[in-house]
Amino acid sequence: SLLLFSISPASASGWSDDFESYAAGAFPSPNWTYSGNWDIHVDNTTHVSGSNSVRLFGVMGGCWGALLHRPMQVSPPFTIEAYIQNGSENLTGCHPNRGSIQLHGGPSWTTPGLNLISFDGDGMIRTFNVGDSRSGRVIGSYSPFEWTKVKIGYEKWDASTLRASFWINDQFMGTELQPACFYYESQTCLADQPNYLSPAVGEGTAWFDDIKVTQGVELPPPPPVSPSKAANTGQVTITLTGSGFTQQTQFTLTGIGLSTL
After folding, report:
1. What three-state secondary structure class fits 110?
2. Do the Cβ atoms of 68 and 198 come closer than 8 Å?
């Protein structure tokens, strides 16, 4: 019986931003830069903690979204946490999605990037959308003007694969494997050096608060337990299985003389 799991080193490296150190109405510099639409400012009318959040606006009916960029300062594996709130505009442009969390190779939407999680115009939350399609896996839904907490664990699985684990409002929503050269905005490989975290909005309004980046990843919840009883041995073996983890450790768990499960 095998138990396969991944362990990442604990570290205090990383950063967080609750947008409390910036003036309301101002751009959150110098920590952040932007690309795309310039309509980005600190907002003191809605927030998760403190008094401020940051508001991004993508041009309505057009093709000009807004992106913030900040250096990651950590290498995989790492964890991204953020709160996202979305507006209720009717999206008719070529970027029909609201808030998203992206990774980019540089401080611009023109650099290689990954769309890790997206709040789409149909009310669904998806992972790994390609471009502006709704091709990603649905992991939840959202309502306008409600804060949603997202957490993403990002790991370099092997030379050609990355792994991402997702939580919505602290509920684990699953893990995905994707090619390390996952194409999004550019036909250039992002590989294992996602240098910039990029909160973004395709069209309409989205707010972000309490953004946090830390080194290492939390272990996803263990897979379901599958019990079986060995014939004529009086032994009960519990098997927990997983696959593809970066580091692998094997355990055999055997109960002796258990009458029932």
Report:
1. coil
2. yes
Q: Which of 111, 85, 125, 99 is nearest to 203 (CA)?
A: 99
Residue (of 102, 35, 84, 92) closest to 63 by Cα position: 92
Smallest CA-to-CA distance from 132 within 143, 123, 124, 121 is with 121
Across 192-221, average pLDDT: 92
Whether omega for the bond prior to residue 77 falls within 30 degrees of 0, making it cis, is yes
Residue with tokens 């927990």: 240
Give the pTM: 0.80
Chain centroid, CA 160 distance in Å: 19
Q: What is the pLDDT of residues 135-184, one digit of tens each?
A: 899 999 999 999 999 999 999 888 788 899 999 999 999 999 988 775 44
Q: What is the DSSP secondary-structure string of 161-219?
A: EEEEEEEETTEEEEEEEEESS--SSSSS--TT---EEEEEESSEEEEEEEEEEEES-PP
Sign of CA dihedral 40, 44, 45, 50: positive
Helices and strands (DSSP H and E) totals, the chain: 0, 18
Distance from the Cα of residue 197 to its chain's centroid: 10
Q: Tell me the two tokens of residue 11.
A: 């570290």
d(CA 34, CA 17): 16
- The identity of residue 31, as a single letter, is N
Mean pLDDT on 63-81: 96
Residue 64 pairs in a beta bridge with none
CA dist 64 and 200 (Å) reads: 11
Say how far apart CA 236 and CA 256 lie, in whole Å: 6
Residue with tokens 């379901």: 224
- Eight-state DSSP code of residue 106: S
Compute the distance between CA of residue 240 and CA of residue 215 in angstroms, rounded to an integer.
Answer: 27
